[in-house]
Amino acid sequence: MDSAIVPATETPPISRPTAIETYELSKNYRTGFWLTQKVASLKGCTLQVFQGETFGLLGPNGAGKTTLLKMLLGITRATSGRALVLGKPTGDRTVKQRIGYLPENPYFYDYLTGWEILSFTAGLFGIPRFVQQKRIPELLDMVGLAQTAAKRKQLRQYSKGMLQRVGLAQALINDPELVFLDEPMSGLDPLGRYQIREIILSLKQQGKTIFFNSHILADVEMICDRVAILGQGELLCIGSLQELLGTSDAYRAKVKGGNPDVLKNRLANLEFKDNYWQGNVLGSTQDFLASLNIMGAQLIEMHLARPTLEEFFVLQLQAKGIRYSA
Ligand SMILES: Nc1ncnc2c1ncn2[C@@H]1O[C@H](COP(=O)(O)OP(=O)(O)O)[C@@H](O)[C@H]1O
Ligand SMILES: [Mg+2]
To answer: Which end of the chain is more exposed for a tag (fewer CB within 10 A), N or C?
Structure first.
């Protein structure tokens, strides 16, 4: 055997540098008139986000996503547990310079123009005027906002999509290495969502770590390296899409007609469901397709047998008795 070739099993595990680490992080809010009722918004959440990855935190409304994000940003204090962001405890001043944040409902001084709000935020970071003159147009370009609109229009005249773009530009003004985005695609039309996805992908290419909250699973499936699912404050699962959904390349087929005694030689776990015979394709898909005619069956549908992220998500919530409607 060529000594230069090391079997995969002997490759030492690579320990990846983390951008975020949380340990048993919990948050209880006190509510009610006398503040006597407790709401557990996050329950003992332990997770890691690696540097350079796009990480999606999923969960239905009220799951605790924004609560977790606000604790990582140092806006809200944890009731118990701890978290490290870029190696420092949350709220560390030096870390604030290195992170960006797009809030769920960005609050803007809406009589300012887009340019003015960016300049204002840049000022908070101590970015000198001459750097701003270069940086702001670059950012407007990146998020797809015309300079004339940014200079002339007040934010109250902006559409939801335009506001989201200014919010994103604002989150990136300090060229952060870690970006937090709370529901960046919500309320946008399909084109707006596509454009935000493209921006996130270009940030990833620049080596930035992106942590974003979402309940739009299709977007998450397209751009995330790893995801976590939160339900009623509990971390239900975490991993790459492959780890969670499996890597099986088995196909599931739905056919019309045919004799079940013959079909069962080609389709495993054959069942009659929704008026069609269905099962997992045995052997190659080519052989299966070629045999359909002989079996007198007609193909209705064929797709990968592993679940989509949406199916997986619903199953995870159902297992915990959590109702979900998209
Ligand atoms: N400031 C607050 N005071 C009281 N309860 C809160 C507060 N913020 C959030 N909650 C509660 O915590 C839970 C999680 O909320 P949140 O983190 O906003 O969820 P998500 O972002 O996943 O929709 C909800 O039940 C919400 O009502
Ligand atoms: Mg939220």
So the answer is: N
